[in-house]
């Protein structure tokens, strides 16, 4: 199956649409030649606001009036709830029963209705689709949609503008929305820049799919990085990875926890495990090349868990 890939024009148009909701996050140099793209500083604490606000901006008036629904382990749900709140649209978020409390509270704080369903992506997707059909709600998928990918790609545009010496970008991989968008923006502008996806060794859905040559569904995932637990990459996301990503690497939970601690001690950055995965890969690889950027994709972490990570 072939897919139409997101273009630079799509991403630039998304940047114009989301300007009033998503912020241009800073690029922080923490060591000589190593930079952090601080997506944990977005209004709801993660890059997900980019795709959610891009999609809501393009819905018809009728779809907005009916309300929106999504399924999410946490950050996409918060993003949809906040983006919907900004334009006075009702929102419903189907979340896993084991979702971090900080993310559940975030959805409710932004006015979203929370429904719990199972523990896997397929559990909450099935419930969300049933609710959408029964209530006439518009689905805002978490990653496998061109508008979501284009929104995420605006992060890549900013990296290109903020780091003229750019050589390498590391980005976390869950369902693949972030890496697809960032890679599409960067490779269609600077094909010489290396783009590397990072996923937990306990949830290697994208690296397994790359090895197989097609999207693969894992039997299970097990990682502290709750935002990266998807069992399967999105079809469109996988097509973007095949076209634009140089490599996908895995990191252990121990390395991710150590990266959370490193970010706090070296940069005073509060990152959730999913957001720190990119830095874990940089540290694992040894001395980074000058012009290396790690995307810190989110910072929504329960205080008790964070305290445990930084205490080692």
Structure description:
This protein is α/β, with parallel strands linked by helices. The protein has helices at residues 8-17, 48-57, 61-66, 75-86, 101-109, 121-135, 146-162, 177-187, 205-212, 235-244, 253-267, 273-285, 303-310, and strands at residues 27-31, 34-38, 68-71, 91-95, 113-116, 138-139, 168-172, 194-200, 247-251, 292-296. Helix 2 (48-57) crosses helix 7 (146-162), helix 7 packs across helix 8 and helix 11 (253-267) crosses helix 12.
The stretches of 5 or more residues where confidence is low (pLDDT under 50) are: none
- CATH third-tier fold name of the largest domain: Rossmann fold
Sketch the major β-sheet.
6 strands, mixed
Following the backbone from N to C, one meets helices and strands in this order, namely HEEHHEHEHEHEHEHEHHEHHEH
Number of helices: 13
What does the radius of gyration come to? 18 Å
Estimated helix fraction: 40-55%
Any key phrases for this structure?
Rossmann fold, 13 helices, 2 domains, globular, alpha/beta
What's this model, at a glance?
With 312 residues, the chain is an alpha/beta fold. The chain has 13 helices and 10 strands. The chain has a 6-stranded mixed sheet with strand order 1-2-10-7-8-9, with helices on both faces.
Blueprint of the fold:
Layout: H1 8-17, E1 27-31, E2 34-38, H2 48-57, H3 61-66, E3 68-71, H4 75-86, E4 91-95, H5 101-109, E5 113-116, H6 121-135, E6 138-139, H7 146-162, E7 168-172, H8 177-187, E8 194-200, H9 205-212, H10 235-244, E9 247-251, H11 253-267, H12 273-285, E10 292-296, H13 303-310
Parallel strand pairs: 2-10, 3-4, 3-6, 4-5, 7-8, 7-10, 8-9
Antiparallel strand pairs: 1-2
